[in-house]
Design a protein that fits this description.
Order of helices and strands: HEEEHEHEHEHHHHHEHEH
Helix content: 25-40%
Number of domains: 1
CATH class: Alpha Beta
CATH topology: Rossmann fold
Number of helices: 11
Shape: globular
Strand order of the largest sheet: 1-2-4-3-5-6-7-8
CATH architecture: 3-Layer(aba) Sandwich
Strand content: 15-25%
Structural class: alpha/beta
Length: 362
Amino acid sequence: MLLPRLITMLALLGVPALAQTAPATIPLKSQEGDYVVRNFRFTSGEALPELRLHYTTLGQPLRNASGQVTNAVLILHGTGGDGHQFFRPQFANVLFKPGGLLDPARMYVILPDDIGHGKSSKPSDGLHARFPHYGYADMVEGEYRLVADGLKVNHLRLVMGTSMGCMHSFMWGEEHPNFEDALMPLACLPVQIAGRNRMWRKMIIDAIEKDPAWNGGEYKTEPQTALRTAADILIIAGSAPLPMQNEFPTATAADKALDSMTGRIMGELDANDLLYQVAASRDYDPSKDLGRITARVMWVNSGDDFINPPELAIARQEVKKIPHGRFVLIPAGAQTHGHGTHTWAALWQDYLAELLKTAPVR
């Protein structure tokens, strides 16, 4: 039987099948909606007559005497996830509780479903491989359109994001340097996706595109061989060695856990959606423009992150380019959760508190 801790840890990579964890135990009154952008043109040159951007919000916006919103927080999800991943207790019960740092009684929290994710427009809606080939630049533009045009928010107190959302946070700081006061990227690196990080993504892409059952995206049933490969890779990418060793200390236990996890993931993935989600990082490389970020930055990674291993020493070099940036590495230990540490708010909420205290309102 899979232990909830590992299921949750892998869910936070964005795997839908493992996202069925308990919601927050504190009462949360949320509102959901869709903002439709007409004739959205992608950086690829493709376009959609209507781009649907789904969102969830908590709380209400407050404006100062000049009409500027003062309490808005944008929280961006990871690859394959959606805004509801932040309703899990390890995040919501810490930050959204009464008196918490992001208590909806004081803050206006915006949780988008990115392009290609959740209830926003995506390939599996019907276009399949004819869906526009979006990249991270398109996704960030969609987030901005939702915030500024859809929700009429003209200023953000904070942009924070996990994994892919972490990467988008850096892009927000560069592309909209006067729109937000503070950035909190969680679990990423602000450089081109390369090395092992690119390789595991390309393994998934190749597995899907080279599976004869994929049929150019027009499959009648999901390509099982491709999805099995993808599921196995996602399990490794989202895992951490200490909890896996402790929870599955024998070969029998590990084999049984793998069969169960793989089956659950395969039952929920859509090959076209996953292909697009993983491929979207192809245009990501904020490294050359980090000096343009004027917001205060609190960037946090963990020591047991397979996707962003600290031994690369990239973070400590790149943070030097950010005028008001600080990098924190949480050491690997019994309480960290690999890549998914980004959503266990108790491990880094003190850094968030410091950021909100020190970042000036602009």
